[in-house]
Amino acid sequence: MDARFNMFGNELATRFGKRFASASLVIHQSSLPKPTQELVSLRASQINGCGFCVDMHTKEAAAAGETSTRLNLVAAWREADVFTEAERAALALAEEGTRLADAHLGVSDETWAQIRKHYDDDQIAALVCLLGLINAANRMNVIVRNPAGGYEPGMAASFAS
């Protein structure tokens, strides 16, 4: 599959991408656990059908030591016993925050209560910003049909430079 448009080869898109990647560094440097960041990004990307981001976040998570069992069960996290209660809350937020058009009320009070129980204010801010960024990245990649499979761990860090 070929991309419809090379976002990495366009000057305007490249300038935007660098700023986008720089914004993500704020989240990556936050106290939100790195495994949670990757699981949330992976789940949103699965929901949005973004192969490029599924590829990226699966590989980044594996490179950081995430197990194949947990990665393989992200899509079925409700039926899996390999995620902590905090991770389950974050995955619920990822689903509800990604599927806004499917639920007119957006994120449920129950899910929000679980987020408040397990995360501090900075971690919540990081989660909310992460969901905004990953959903935007998913949409851009799906629109241009950016193909999956060629991502190598660490490539995202080079986007910001």
Automatic annotation (TrEMBL):
Give a single Pfam family match: CMD
Question: Which UniProt keywords are present, listed alphabetically?
Answer: Oxidoreductase, Peroxidase
Q: What is this protein called?
A: Alkylhydroperoxidase
Q: Which Gene3D superfamilies match?
A: AhpD-like
Source organism, top-level taxon: Bacteria
Keyword presence, Transmembrane: no
The record ties this protein, via InterPro entries, to: AhpD-like (IPR029032), AhpD_core (IPR004675), CMD-like (IPR003779)
Q: Name one GO molecular function term.
A: peroxiredoxin activity
* Domain Carboxymuconolactone decarboxylase-like, chain residue ranges per copy: 26-96
